[in-house]
Amino acid sequence: MNAPPAQVWLNTLLTLLQDSQFAVLRLWHALGLTGDSHGQPAWPWARRIAGETLLIDLGLARQVAWSVAAIGFALTCVAVAIVWRHRRLTWLGVAALALILAPWPAPALLFTPAAPTSFHTSPTRFSAEAIARGGRLYAQHCSACHGDDGRGEGPLAASLPHWPPTFVGPLLGRRADGELFAHIVDGMHDTAGWPTMPAFGQQLGDDGAWAVLDYTKALAAGTAASTNGNWPIPLRLADVSVRCGQGAPRPLADWRGNQRVRVVAFDGEASSLPLEDPRFLTLLVTRDGSHLSDVPQFRADCVADSPHAWAAFAQLAGIDTSRLAGTEFLADRQGWLRARALPSRSPWDGAGLLCTAGQAGSGQGVNPSAADGLTALLLRMDAEPVRFVQGGFIH
Question: Where is 261: in which H helix or E strand?
């Protein structure tokens, strides 16, 4: 019998570890044993489980999995011993033996330094408005060192003692959002204690720091998409206010977990729009965020009601706002942005899937030649769900 694929049991293990740490944090906070940091419960310890290490070291992950199983088995034996008094010593001995034989991982490998904000979550929902604000703040405070394209080659980069890292890679995915937030507000230091990046907490404030983090993700996506043909880390579909028909506006994030979404940048004749497709919701993005009243029937379901949506999706696509018209995006049912189709290419083909290996499953069993390009792309998206992001934990 074959063992389950690595992404299945590893996903389960990481979810268990993440949920356990969150549960401990909530318990500590409820008991008053830890306070708040930047408006959210503060992680009270100097270290946390290194989920990002488990992603790249399957041997260590297996050690952790067997050790967790040993703990569960030992607890079961203790429970049996409490109930079955006649064999209490036997069951307690079995529990102790399981713990002794467990392949305990080295603490230096399992744990990594943490910050009080390590388990903070962003309140911005990766919205188009936050990306726009983050872009303005990035240009003012960050681009001189990190560069306009996020490659770390700004005009001041060469004068620094340590060259700024590039965002166009897996860097933003190796740390949890809360730790990236801490780097922005508190700055960074090398192992000798010398500052390598100044603190921007006073200049940006908490909301500004989260917005800058959103923008750096969008910037990294756009730069990588235009140069490498992929998105270096999985991204949520940028949240915007959506108006469907005559209904009241609602957040696009409301569809997360239920509905695929196709985003179409529209700036021309309504008759040129693609037809509605029952496999996903079609969302139009216009230059000024205006609601369209003349969209023909069966052309689109909803329109983004945000003046910042056009620029946000242009950033994610890696193209100038003047060339965005006709570009399409696909997001899966969980709200992950997965594919892009440029107007200069055929509508959909395998090259459009920009969120692929390293963040998804195996994709086995999908035959792209068995269907049209769009259908094959949807099948592959379903077969390769996004699993591991942001410091090894699912966000």
Answer: strand 261-265
Task: State pLDDT tens for residues 104-118.
Answer: 999 999 999 999 999
Task: Report DSSP letters for 295-326, one per residue.
Answer: PPTTS-SEEE--TTHHHHHHHHHTS-GGG-TT
pTM flag (> 0.85): yes
What letter represents residue 323's amino acid?
R
Q: Are strands 235-236 and 241-244 parallel, antiparallel or unpaired?
A: unpaired
d(CA 132, CA 289): 14
Q: What gap in Å lies between CA 35 and CA 40, rounded to an integer? A: 8
Task: Identify whether the C-beta of residue 206 lies closer than 8 Å to the C-beta of residue 182.
Answer: no
Mean pLDDT of all residues belonging to the chain? 85
Query: Is the model's pLDDT at 178 over the cut of 80?
Result: yes
Which tokens sit at 272? Answer: 């040129």
Work out the pLDDT band at 363, boundaries 50, 70, 90.
Answer: very low
Q: Is the pLDDT of residue 288 over 80?
A: no
What are the chain's domains?
6-33+47-113 (no CATH), 128-227 (1.10.760.10), 235-383 (3.40.30)
Residues 6+ apart with CB under 8 A from 92: 77, 78, 81
Cα maximum dimension of the chain:
82
Distance CA 188, CA 201 (A): 12
Structure token digits, residue 122: 């962003």
Q: Are 333 and 259 in contact (CB under 8 A)?
A: yes
DSSP letter assigned to residue 288: S
Backbone dihedral angles phi then psi of residue 314, each to the nearest 5 degrees: -65, -40
